[in-house]
Design goal:
Elements: H1 7-10, H2 14-21, E1 25-29, E2 34-36, E3 44-48, E4 52-58, E5 64-70, H3 78-83, E6 90-95, E7 97-103, H4 104-113, H5 115-141, H6 144-157, E8 163-165, H7 168-175, H8 179-191, E9 195-198, E10 201-204, H9 207-213, H10 216-229
Helix pairs in contact: 4-5, 5-10, 6-8, 6-9, 6-10, 7-8
The structure holds zinc ion (ZN).
Residues 138, 142, 146-147, 150, 215, 217 line the site of zinc ion.
Length: 241
């Protein structure tokens, strides 16, 4: 297997690739490292290689919920960075690893001059916006095991690794449920033998089974991710599978 790479940077071509690579440096990020505070401007953007980030909305009473996962398909903080606005959520590393980091201002300037780069950034913005919209609907409508199955599948699609690092408190945050609910839902998926779960590590053991355990949200989002990954025609976007 070749070394993991950030898909966005790895698939840029020509002058855009050369110019973008000139803006980034490779760094190691640690779990729980906050790269953008809620309400702060986005000064740097991260392109995950094998790290993953989460968008987290925090409330004054201490509660928090994750609205999107960012993996090696793209980059963090995209919509606020493009508008040069304060970020309405916190961006935190959910799985440690390697990433490229670039100055948001430098990337914004480059994208303004490079329409092909801008089109790619807008396509990712659409993916993350869709993820957040579907997460909101999903949390209101679907059961805890369905929601957990969906998050595990999505995080797996955005990761080059076979196993996923998830802590119970994060799973609870992902789906806006109590830890006891999450614990029961995760055990249910384990009993169905669709995931193996222990010591904070999840491995998908039966992908088709896990997809069958997830709600329709996963199938609704998947074509958009495939379009970003260039696996399918974007014409399928929005359809359920
Ligand atoms: Zn759902």
């Amino acid at each position: 297997m070749s070394d993991p790479e950030n898909h966005f940077i790895g698939t840029l071509e020509g002058e855009e690739a050369r110019l973008l690579r000139g803006l980034v440096r490779r760094v190691t990020v640690n779990v729980d490292q906050i790269v953008v505070d809620q309400g702060a401007p986005v000064r740097e953007v991260y392109f995950p290689i094998d790290a993953q980030f989460a968008n987290l909305v925090r409330y004054p009473d201490g509660s928090a919920i994750e609205t999107a996962v960012i993996g090696n398909e793209g980059l963090t903080g995209l919509a606020p960075f493009m508008g040069d606005r304060a970020c309405a959520w916190e961006i935190v590393c959910r799985a440690g690893g390697e990433a490229y980091v670039a100055s948001a201002a430098a990337l914004r300037t480059l994208a303004a001059d490079r329409p092909r780069l801008m089109v790619r950034l807008l396509s990712l913005t659409d993916l993350y916006q869709s993820q957040a919209a579907i997460a909101a609907a999903c949390n209101a409508l679907h059961s805890a095991p369905e929601r957990i199955a969906r998050w595990i599948l999505t995080a797996s699609d955005l990761s080059p690794n076979e196993t996923l690092f998830f802590r119970q408190e994060e799973l609870a945050r992902l789906i806006g449920a109590r830890r006891s609910t999450v614990s029961e839902a995760a055990s249910q998926l384990k009993r169905r033998k669709v995931i193996a779960y222990g010591r904070g590590v999840i491995r998908i053991t039966d992908r088709a089974g896990l997809e069958a355990s997830a709600c329709a949200c996963y199938g609704m989002l998947k074509p958009r991710l495939n379009a970003v990954h260039g696996l399918e025609m974007a014409g399928n976007v929005g359809s359920q599978t």
